[in-house]
Amino acid sequence: MAKMGRPWRDHKPPSSAPVWGIIEGFGAYYLLLTALELGVFDVMASDGPTPVGLLADRLEVSPTHLAGLLDSLVALALLERVDERFGLNETAERYLVSGGPASLADLVGVAPGPRENWLGLAETIRQGRPANPIEGDPAAFYVPLVEGTFTTVFRAASRADLKIRYSALTAPRVLDLGAGGAPWAMAVLSKCPKATAVVNDLPGVLPVAQRKAQEHGVAERCTFLPGNFHEVPLEEEAFDLVVLGHVCRTEGVDGAQHLIHRAYRALRPGGRVLLADYFVDPDRRYNPHGVLMGMTMMASTLEGFALTNAQATQWLRAAGFVNRRLIEPIGNQFVYVATRAEKRSR
What we know:
The chain is of the alpha/beta class. Helix content is 45%, strand content 17%. The radius of gyration is 23 Å and the shape is globular.
């Protein structure tokens, strides 16, 4: 029985800790959201370790209530307390301060998607579609999301060069489909001074990429292509890199395969597709982040699903890609890299 993963089932009941962990997770999320809304982490980054009273004055809040919030954040390992002073730990410095090197501060509030869709999840499962899908107003959802994810994905895209070596290309042409803030295009253009990019997204989202390109000093090397990535006209056999960054899991099986085939046709022979997503393992056990991200898609989109490694590799192979490999530039950020080796008859 022990070898089957069921030790002492008939004699020793399991702990209720997994259930309580989920119940308390609801409160933990809103504690973090509140701390970000009040500016707790940014003020601590400016002032250093601070007593509750002084911090309450700076934030213009109730000292008693703030003390409860800070104690909870210490319990969640998001702050540290020494004597009567509260300060940032390394996790908060890196991920929760607005200017942190890998800040997730802007992402916390938008990552789960519309909260009302979670409250109606049972009905979504009954009906097979959410009551308020984000497709009804995609810009309202995607603009804050792509702004919140830019720092993380740009870091992943930059680190990916260690495995992909796109910086060794002389003057690559990049096609970034459904680019959001275009972190992949920005990373390649930042490392390749002669690179150019075609950056595509919906008209309401594309201004984020335009702003990011200005901030990174590469706007003059970008062509911005508004429109649905299933329909916009694309040059064939014209690009060295095509990026499908966290877009396939929103499109359903048919839509994801269509994007992969579009990427193949747009690439020159020898060009590579970069398919980034949260891929799920066959047993649905070893990458819970990917499984839960798939559920987040199902809660708020019409076609979203959990994308598996088996699906990704099968679809890349079916499209004609060779030399398929999976890399993890930073933790939990996975990318399939595959090559168009030769022309295909159509």
